[in-house]
């Protein structure tokens, strides 16, 4: 946890793929607390870019779909060129409620370098198999990092820009969130957790079993080869 900085200037990075039906509402919701929103359109074939722009976002369009990790890294490259002090990460599919964002921002403004939106306090709102796999993954990452991780699969985060600049990221898919967590842990004394609403269904492209398997083995790779 760093000393409180009087200048707090966040930017939101929103990876998006085939999210024309949801991204506009997400951007408008974010802009109620974060004026600068960067949507990274990961090669969508629908009007994701247009809907995001009309809602007030800056849009970075990738030429072809290459995975969430690629979109996040492209967004970070752009965001970290600005004078933003923090980066807020939200998904474009409506599974992160922008109404929860002010609480994450408040924790970051108070000095927390890595704030995770945790859905684990409301198990009744989460499909049982998703809750269980997330619980197991969170325990594993807690052991790997030595820091308490409540919600390993949450991509709803606010992270200090200076911390993000220290990370060498290379993931292309959903494992980007685990890579960021593992590589940040060695620079932190803790992760902060803020309860957020659990929303499932809609336009998520996450494949629960396949992607959880990939993330689990990827976490081992990053821990063994890239974080020690």
Structure in words:
α5 (128-145) packs parallel to α8. The protein is globular and about 40 Å long. Helix content is 38%, strand content 15%. A 7-stranded mixed beta sheet has the order 3-2-1-4-6-5-7, with helices on both faces. The longest helix is centred in the C-terminal third of the chain and has 19 residues, at 208-226. The model has no long low-confidence stretch (mean pLDDT 88). It has helices at 23-30, 48-54, 68-79, 101-109, 128-145, 161-164, 176-185, 208-226, and strands at 10-16, 37-42, 58-62, 86-89, 114-118, 157-160, 192-195. The chain has 228 residues and is of the alpha/beta class. The protein is built from 8 helices and 7 strands.
Summary, kept brief:
By secondary structure, the protein is of the alpha/beta class.
Terminal CA distance reads 21 Å
Q: Strands of the largest sheet, in order across it?
A: 3-2-1-4-6-5-7
Count of discrete alpha- or pi-helical segments spanning 4 or more residues: 8
Most strands sheet = 7 strands, mixed
* Poorly predicted tracts of residues: none
On the 0 to 100 scale, the average pLDDT is: 88
Strand content: 15-25%
Q: Output the radius of gyration.
A: 16 Å
Q: How many strands appear in the DSSP assignment?
A: 7
Q: What's the helical proportion of residues?
A: 25-40%
How would the blueprint of this fold be written?
Blueprint (H helix, E strand, L loop, with lengths): L9 E7 L6 H8 L6 E6 L5 H7 L3 E5 L5 H12 L6 E4 L11 H9 L4 E5 L9 H18 L11 E4 H4 L11 H10 L6 E4 L12 H19 L2
Parallel strand pairs: 1-2, 1-4, 2-3, 5-7
Antiparallel strand pairs: 4-6, 5-6
Helix pairs in contact: 5-8, 7-8
């Amino acid at each position: 946890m760093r000393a409180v900085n009087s200048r707090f200037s966040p930017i939101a990075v929103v990876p998006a793929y085939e999210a024309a039906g949801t991204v506009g509402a997400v951007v408008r919701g974010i802009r109620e607390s974060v004026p600068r929103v960067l949507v990274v359109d990961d090669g969508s074939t629908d009007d994701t870019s247009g809907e995001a722009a009309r809602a007030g976002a800056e849009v970075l369009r990738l030429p072809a779909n290459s995975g969430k990790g690629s979109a996040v890294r492209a967004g970070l490259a752009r965001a970290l060129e600005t004078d933003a002090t923090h980066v807020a990460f939200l998904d474009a599919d409506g599974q992160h409620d922008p109404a929860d964002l002010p609480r994450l921002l408040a924790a970051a403004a108070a000095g927390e370098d890595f704030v995770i939106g945790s859905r684990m306090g409301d198990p009744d709102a989460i499909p049982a198999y998703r809750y269980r796999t997330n619980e197991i993954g969170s325990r594993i990452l807690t052991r790997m990092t030595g820091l308490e991780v409540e919600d390993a699969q949450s991509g709803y985060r606010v992270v200090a820009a200076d911390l993000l600049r220290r990370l060498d990221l290379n993931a292309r898919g959903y494992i980007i969130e685990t890579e960021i967590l593992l590589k940040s842990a060695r620079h932190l004394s803790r992760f902060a957790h803020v309860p957020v609403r659990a929303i499932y269904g809609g336009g998520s492209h996450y494949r629960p079993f396949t992607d959880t398997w990939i993330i689990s083995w990827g976490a081992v790779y990053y821990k063994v080869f890239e974080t020690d």
